[in-house]
Amino acid sequence: MTSPGESVTEEPWEAEVGQLLGGLPAVEPPDGFIDRVVDRRPLNAGRTLAALGLLTLGLALASTIGDAVRPAEVVPEIEDLVARHDLAATVGLSSGLAGTEDRAELDGGPFDLPVGFESEGEVTVEDVRQAVYARDDEAVSVFVQDGRVDWSALPADRLGRLGDLRAWVDEERAISVIEVDGSIVTVIGLGPDELDEAMRATATDEGRSLGQRATDLAEAVVSNLGYAPAG
Amino acid sequence: MSGEADVAVTAPPGSRLRRRVGRAKRGGADGVGRPTVPSWEQVARSHDRFLYSLAYRLCGNHQDAQDLVQEVLLRVRRGLHTYQPGNLEGWLSRITTNTFLDQVRKQKRRPTVALPDEPDRVLAGSPGVDAEMASRDLPDHLQALLLDLPPDYRVAVVLKDVLSFSYEEIADIVGAPIGTVRSRIHRGRGRLREALSA
Predict the structure, then answer these.
(1) pLDDT digits over B33-84, tens only?
(2) Which of A2, A13, A16 is facing B4, going by the closest CB pair?
(3) Between these two residues, B18 and A152, which has the higher pLDDT value?
């Protein structure tokens, strides 16, 4: 098959090799393989979490009617953010897969990532901004969205603190959620050690506490991604 | 007439994988003809043969092919909301080849030996044995030779000659200029030709 505009000249031997390869038969997956993959998908947990999240979000929104000055409580859609991170890490931000992407280069990073990370760009999908940084085949995504974290809707066994900040941390998948000044910051792709390293690098005063550095980090993220702190 | 066209014309009817497993199984359309996005399960079930064949041709053995397809379907599930109806096979191929190349890069950092299902078919290095295999079982022999290609060449050759993607489509799938794609295919075919004639 030749696409319009393609002008391809191939040697006869190339056509012969191509024809040989074209004769390779399709390979059937083993019996029941796809069934096992489909049945084993980790979607149920995600659906449960999403449903719980939506329910809680609904309750939270209902409880805050009339409270216009406070940002709404939001449950970060962790699995969606992980999907966006994986996709960016796999096929890149400029893949053209998502029509809602609004790609723009960042000037510098939201904070000082470990050595070697470089900005890949930024996209906004459904009001959640994603900045991506890459080092070799590693990728880090920093998501920022308006709102306050509805901590009660996140799995309680991963709730904790990042310095002085309340945080939800999934160490295994390198996911951290923090909140600052009316914005929710979710970092994916940095383990606790590297995140700590990033915060230390961001700190201007080594004597400051981890919590202060975390606050600096979050404020820097929010500031660099164009989110003004809520009044 | 280009050699490319010759290949398409002279290939045995129905020998192209994509023609057999792809076209009839694409996503449907809504009531006004707009293409619709299939569900993850629909993608998994309707393109299982396509994905598995691509994975097997890249990996050369069933265990790695299964691992690759599982990882691809996981990424498909997570990223399906970003898919814009159109060339689903191209989108799946992009995810599959990127995932495959990611795994290759990781394996380089943690070297392991991925054996084919029938290791003797690949590990045998003498020309005499290769020649015997070529005459005895050409598909297996070709598959073994594919595994000797550098991963970038293998991806390009498989997409072109096994799945019949156009150069333009392959360039989009692998994110490389068409010239680079042509070069990889040309060199990959050249290596296969040398191996076949050895």
Answers:
(1) 556 678 888 899 999 999 999 999 999 999 899 989 988 988 888 788 888 8
(2) A2
(3) A152
- Judge contact between A139 and A185, C-beta under 8 A: no
Asked if B104 is an interface residue toward chain A (Cβ–Cβ < 8 A), one would say no
What lies within 8 Å, CB to CB, of A75 at 6+ separation is A53, A54, A56, A57, A60, A149, A150, A153, A154
Strand partners, A184: A145, A179
Distance CA(B103)–CA(B66), nearest Å, equals 13
pLDDT higher than threshold 50 for residue A86 = yes
Count of CB pairs separated by less than 8 Å, A with B: 174
Please answer yes or no on whether B161 and A7 come within 8 Å at the CB atom.
Answer: no
pTM over 0.80: no
pLDDT, tens only, A21-35 = 998 989 999 988 888
How many Å apart are CA B25 and CA A35, to the nearest integer? 18
> What ipTM does this complex have?
0.72
DSSP class of residue B12 equals P
- What's the rounded Cα separation, in Å, for the pair B22 and B51? 10
Q: Give φ, ψ of A125 to 5 degrees.
A: -130, 125
For chain B positions 4-23, those within 8 Å of chain A (CB to CB) are: 4-8, 10-12, 15-17, 20-21
Compute the C-alpha angle A139/A142/A147, nearest 5°.
Answer: 160
Output the pLDDT for position A111: 52
Chain A residues 134-173 with a CB less than 8 Å from chain B: 137
Long-range contacts of A105-112 (CB under 8 A, 24+ apart): A106/A131, A106/A224, A108/A224, A109/A133, A109/A224, A110/A142, A110/A217, A110/A220, A110/A221, A110/A223, A110/A224, A110/A225, A111/A198, A111/A199, A111/A201, A111/A202, A111/A216, A111/A217, A111/A220, A111/A221, A112/A198, A112/A201, A112/A202
For chain B, the average pLDDT equals: 74
pLDDT classification of A112: cutoffs 50, 70, 90: low
